[in-house]
Every structure is written in structure tokens, then in C-alpha cells.
Amino acid sequence: MAFPDFVEIQHTPGYRQSSNRSCRLINHIVIVALFLCFTVTNCVLVETPLNAVVVGGGSIEFKCKSDRGKRLKWLTQKNQSQLILFNGYSICKEAQSFCNVENEEPGEFYLTLTAIDEAAQTYICQEPGTESESSADLIIIERETQCKTDYNASHATMKCDLEFHGIWVPELEWSHNGTLITEGVNVSIVSNKSVSSTLTVPLSADVSNYTCTTRFDIRGKPYWTTSNNIPDYVSNSVLRVEAAQAFSEKHERPLSASGTPVGLVIGLLLAFIAVAVIAIYIRVKMERRKRKRLQKPKTSDADEPLATLA
């Protein structure tokens, strides 16, 4: 069986030139498109906001700067919804009471926040038209950690409370002589309001000191926040737990409802009654003397000569 010979196709010079020009044009278009894509998607925010804590009022500044010198946007995220806070030119009406944006250099937009309850949110710095953005959280400590200790016959119960506003919940950690305590700890959290921790320990033969440390843990950071720094806030509260014998001696006497020994209450009451009785006695005696003076008969002028003759 004979196979047909291969046929060589010859192109005219004009066809080859047209084909080469088309290829070069396509290559130029691809290069320009790749350049534009690289330029848009690879701009860099040379300054980004960091997670921060404000205690007891004041203000905080979130920094954001683009290497392209273009206008930036600020957004907020709360309850998984976003709101444009600053569109590159002006601040939205809802945020004017607690924030301000300063633009001193091209591409530099610093966000200043007043520490009120509404300001405790996630803030996002974004370059419009690109994928460049960075976010950070603001936590406001309204009242620092407050602690107290209650006793019963055999145990001491320590409780610490912290009032705050924000999405990132602070951690309350218990330790004794430098050893972290995890057993017997109960934690209660009210979202965006407070966190409390309770530790119950048995009374021992010696005085013991327990420490409640308030700090932030990276595991508590909202998953959508890109900034990975841990807020610079640590507070230690030391609680003294009395020895069992000392507690027993101090509380073996019966106490009144206010915590004062009953014997002292009775003594003060008897003293008050005695003072009241003496005051009444003196008043009655004075009233009697006054009455006698008023009842004593007066001698008339006619009787005076007779009294003289006698």
C-alpha cells in the first residue's frame, strides 16, 4: 500500500510579516496587562494600624500609609458587618463624635479615636481599587480589675471583675507562687461589657498570696483582624488568703449582720441607754426644783412691820 507524500505548505512573505506583527501586538498587550495587574495588586501599605488598648478615657491613633501616595479609606467592622468610616475625603456622620482623620503627607491617613464605648471596634485601612488592606482592634478598659475575697469555714473564694468594651475579650489568669492555676476557676463573660473570674481554694495552715493577671491572648483575637500584635496591657492584682487558724480565731466570736462582734454591739447599746437615763434623771430633777421655786409663797409688805416687832 502506497502512502501519499507529505505536502509542504509554503507561505508567502506577506503572510509571514502579518503573522509576526499580530504576535508582537499580542505580546505587548499581555505585557501591559501583566504590568497593570502587578502594579494594582502589589501596592504596599508601608504603615499599618496595630491592636491597641485605652484605659479610662483618652484617645489613640491608628496609622496607615500607602507607598503609592493615593487616598485611603477607613472602614469599621462590628458584628461581622462593615461600614465606611472615611471615604478618602470625609468622615461619615455616625462616626464624627469619636474619630478624626489627618492627612499631612500624600498617602498618609492617620485615624484618631476618642475612647468612648462606640469606638471599641475593628478598624480597616484600605487602598481603593487594590487588594491592599490592614485591620486592627481597639479595646477600651472602662474600669480596671476589681477583686474581693469571701470566706466560709473551710474555703476562700476570690473573685475579680473587669469592665471593658470591644470584640477582643481580656483574659483573667490565676497563679500561686508563680504557678498557673486552671482547676477550680470559673469564668463569666458578658459580650462587649465585662469579664469575671472566680477561684475557690481550701484554707491552709499558712497565709497564701494569689495573683490575678489581666492580659490579652492571641487566641482571643477576632479571626478577621489582620494585625497580629498583642495589645500592650498587663495588670496584676494580689489577694491575701488568711491561714485557717487565724481565720477561725478572728471569726469564732458571733457577729452581727454588719460584721461587728455582738458583745461590742450590746455594750454600745447599754452605754447609750445609761447616758439617756442619766440625762432624763437630771432633767426631771431640774424640773422639780423649778416647780418648788414657783410654788413658794411670797411675804406681803403689810406683814413686814409685824415681823420686825416680833
Biggest β-sheet, characterized? 8 strands, mixed
Proportion of residues in β-strands: 25-35%
Radius of gyration: 43 Å
* Structural category: alpha+beta
Q: What's the total count of β strands?
A: 17
The oligomeric state is single chain
Query: What general form does the structure show?
Result: elongated
> What is the element string, with H for helices and E for strands?
HEEEEEEEEEEEEEEEEEHHH
What integer is the average pLDDT?
Answer: 81
Distance from first to last alpha carbon: 194 Å
Question: What is the element layout, followed by pairings?
Answer:
Elements: H1 13-41, E1 45-47, E2 52-55, E3 59-62, E4 65-66, E5 73-78, E6 81-86, E7 99-102, E8 110-114, E9 122-126, E10 133-151, E11 155-165, E12 171-176, E13 179-181, E14 185-190, E15 194-202, E16 208-215, E17 235-241, H2 244-251, H3 262-295, H4 303-309
Describe the protein:
The protein is elongated, with a radius of gyration of 43 Å. Mean pLDDT is 81; it is low at 1-9, 32-41 and 304-310. The protein starts with 12 loop residues before the first helix and ends with a helix. It is built from 4 helices and 17 strands. Strands 2, 5, 6, 9, 10, 11, 14 and 15 form an 8-stranded mixed sheet that branches. A 4-stranded antiparallel sheet has the order 13-12-16-17, with no helix packed on it. Strands 3-8-7 form a 3-stranded antiparallel sheet, with no helix packed on it. It has helices at residues 13-41, 244-251, 262-295, 303-309, and strands at 45-47, 52-55, 59-62, 65-66, 73-78, 81-86, 99-102, 110-114, 122-126, 133-151, 155-165, 171-176, 179-181, 185-190, 194-202, 208-215, 235-241. With 310 residues, the chain is an alpha+beta fold.
